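Incident log, structure service

09:12 report received: a user says their structure output differs between two submissions of the same chain.
09:20 pulled the input from the user's history:
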Amino acid sequence: MLGSLRFKLALLYLIVFTVILGGLSLTLIKLRERDRWQDFDDQVRDATEVMALQVVVSGVLPPSRDIIRSRGYRRSALHIPGEFFQIRAVDESVIERSEGLRDEVLPLTDVGRTAKSSDEPVLELLTGADAFRLLQASGELRLATLYRDPPTMDPFYLQVAMSTEPIEEGLRSMRRTFGVVIPSGLLAAAVASWVLARRSLAPVQKIVERARQISAASLHERLPMPRGRDEAAELVRTLNEMLDRLDKAFQAQERFLSDVSHELKTPLSVLLGEAQVLAQRKRDIREYETFIHSVEEEVRSMHQTVDSLLLLARADAGFPMTFTSDVSLNDIVVEAVQRIQPLASVNRVQIRVTLTDPSDDGASINVRGDMNLLVLMIGNLVHNAVRFSPQGESVNVCVAVRGSHAEVEVEDRGPGIDHEMTGKLFERFATRRVDSSTGRRQGGSGLGLAIARGVARLHGGDLVASEHFRPGAKFIARLPIAAA
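09:34 re-ran on a clean worker, output below:
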């Protein structure tokens, strides 16, 4: 649980909220303390100036409370319980002081003496022994010293001191309040963070639960797309794309296994039958040699079939080619035709090749891909065309450029394409043509066109059959031209 994403998100939310709440609370406390002290200092200054004005106007020294009431002076809401005042002559001797001072005097420090050059009271803080002597308890005093030199009387220093305890108590009460509010807020934030993290991850949890229900037997199923275009939708889209690829890979694997079993069952049955017949009685050496030759031919055929099926499975799964280079399409066609030429000679079929002229644009047409696979593709097309062409006919192979693609067209004058097989022409094991005279289907294993189209699509192209070419058949292999 501690390592879960929900816990980490909730912890992150809580940390962020703690930093924000702590920062705001600290700032608020500092601002409040500053305001309270500033109000307190203003109160001390006001009381000092009012008392000094009363002294100057009346020329007497009444008690401070009477002076404050006579001038309508109002204290702030701090409710300071006690205050002290003292008047010194210019020689710093004490002329008058409040009864609360008893035998003590308010000190006149160097800071207080600077009031002689100022029109406003000078404030300082009395701490330690000085404050203890006056308060008879621990605490601090705010001392204001004001110097006046009126024309109607002698100069004097007026000093007013007020205890800071009411202010300190108010600030302590405020800190206690924050001490309760902040933990309560953090507790509420922790609960809210946990709920928010759970709600934020709820779509992901649903995706996980749905994904766990998808197995190899149900790869066709997909995760339901949530509404919106948030990260959860992007995750579902990515997972569905991955399931598409896995589904295609499994289908290719199943198709490969099915194809292998389909193609190997017959030759293996033939070999098993021949071996059983051969074992019924003693044979001469020639029969054994014939059997060995048959086994060699069947194994070679099976080897070629397995290689072809592997290539088709690779194409179906969309695996990229490992070895690619820029190769000349003219060279590919020439190489493929040279490999099929012996078969054409035996069948008395002429192969006519039309290549692109490099002098037209100064360079031959290059395609990006695997030379051997491309030769195999063209070779399969030419091989089919030669095999289905009547004796004395010709097979035309033409290389052309159509925009950004190169095309290789292979034409023959054979029996043509069965209309019923048009939609299944490039499927595995499809026998493609019919004999116009006998009506019987002709063809080999039915893998040649499927392999050719698979190779074309591996190279970003395609293989199509012309539907309007009569008589015979015409196949067009399209490949993207390599960038210069």
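09:41 both user submissions now match this output. Likely a transient worker issue. Closing.
09:42 reviewer note: The domain at 5-171 is CATH 3.30.450.20 (Beta-Lactamase). Residues 5-58 form the longest helix (54 residues).
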